[in-house]
Amino acid sequence: MARLLAITNQKGGVGKTTTAINLAASLAAAEVPTLLVDCDPQANATSGLGFAADPERLSLYQGLRGEAAAEALILPTAMQGLDLLPSSRDLIGANLELVEAEEREFRLKKLLQPLAERYGFILLDCPPALDLLNLNALVAAEGLLVPMQCEYFALEGVAQLLATVEAVRAHWNPTLEIAGVLFTQLDDRTTLSRQVAESLRQHFGERVFRTAIPRNIRLAEAPSHGLPALLYDLRSKGAEAYLQLAHEVIEREQARSASQPA
């Protein structure tokens, strides 16, 4: 049964899509079948896995509108064990077109339900805006993986994040949890980074991953080649960090499953 994790932060530029692509690839490298769902109309996860814009290609847009089943949308990637459910610019229209739709907040959850037995993980790459697309991801997800930069504005965003989680729990998804907080683009040589990291650890406790993602030029270069970092440069510090993160995510999932009542 797939574990659905939404990779989200309402602040842009924190490494959501970089994390989505590279964690998904690293989970696949650990021999866990993984699906990455690109929920962002910018389609950066789609292009970052080597798929150029194609107006003829079916995407999440058709899936949310009920015009295509999820199985018809899935694309295999260059990484064995990793599939993509792509986005497109058309997805911008879904925010308006689905406003009056029945059970509009549950469209993504229902679309993905038939895939639950096919994958070990389904990762949702969320847009930064708190719109209907993001809401669909939060309703579909079991847990949130939150990338955060260790800078002052990360602390300001914590209250907003927690308020969003509580609102989604109250109205649509009562079991939603913050599954993990990930430090990205970390430069622990600076006093500010260390101070912010310590503040976030105090707030989120064990939900902060041991693994942190360093600033790494190879991570930034890989999407322009349409590849995850571990296929672009396996020995880069960024690729190594995401492989470590994948093992930590798997360990957490195994521990969570073991603690569930039989």
Strand-pairing-aware structural class = alpha/beta
Sheet with most strands: strand arrangement = 3-4-2-5-1-6-7
Q: How much strand?
A: 5-15%
The best one-word shape is globular
- Write the element-wise H/E pattern from the N-terminal end onward: EHEHHEEHHEHEHEHHHH
Mean pLDDT: 93
| Low-confidence parts | none
As a percent range, the share of helical residues equals 40-55%
C-alpha termini separation: 15 Å
Number of DSSP-assigned strands: 7
The biggest beta sheet reads:
7 strands, mixed
As a whole number of angstroms, the C-alpha radius of gyration is: 17 Å
- The assembly state of the depicted protein chains is single chain
Q: How many DSSP helices? A: 11
